[in-house]
Amino acid sequence: MTRRADGELETDVLRALWELGRPASPSEVIEQMGTDLAYTSIATILGRLCDKGLATRQRAGRAYQYVATSTEADLTAKRLRSVLDSASDRESALAGFAEALDPAEAAQLIALLNDTT
């Protein structure tokens, strides 16, 4: 069995919640993911996502249903800001990021920046 990278399963579970677009049970998340992981494993990950503020849960009979607290785009932006905030040389970090963009992505970023100024 191949071991997942740290955080990869949480991201996969969040992606399933985003795709479902509604409160979902662990069983529904498993089905959306197309995985054979155990119900308890997914329920544990969903609980951790709630603890981190990335999902909320509500009672649905004897079980819980879960929903992501933000969109994928919002979470990605938050993570990018966090990485940038942790850099000791913010300007170099931004430069490295910009240099790694392909021309189409760079054009998109420029257009977005021009729209916000």
Q: Overview of this structure, please?
A:
With 117 residues, this protein is mostly helical. It folds into 2 domains: 8-68, Orthogonal Bundle (Arc Repressor Mutant, subunit A); 89-117. Helices cover 63% and strands 10% of the residues. It has 6 helices and 2 strands; from the N terminus they run αααββααα. It has helices spanning 8-20, 26-33, 39-51, 72-86, 90-100, 103-116; strands at 55-60, 63-68. It has a two-stranded antiparallel ribbon with strand order 1-2. Helix 1 (8-20) crosses helix 3 (39-51) and helix 2 (26-33) packs across helix 3. The longest helix has 15 residues, at 72-86. The protein is elongated, with a radius of gyration of 18 Å. The mean pLDDT is 93.
Pick out the low-confidence regions: none
User: CATH architecture of the largest domain, please?
Assistant: Orthogonal Bundle
Name the CATH homologous superfamily of the largest domain. Answer: Winged helix-like DNA-binding domain superfamily/Winged helix DNA-binding domain
Mean pLDDT: 93
Order of helices and strands: HHHEEHHH
Radius of gyration of CA atoms, rounded to a whole number: 18 Å
- CATH fold title of the largest domain: Arc Repressor Mutant, subunit A
Family: Belongs to the BlaI transcriptional regulatory family.
GO molecular function: DNA binding
Protein name: Putative BlaI family transcriptional regulator
Organism: Ilumatobacter coccineus (strain NBRC 103263 / KCTC 29153 / YM16-304)
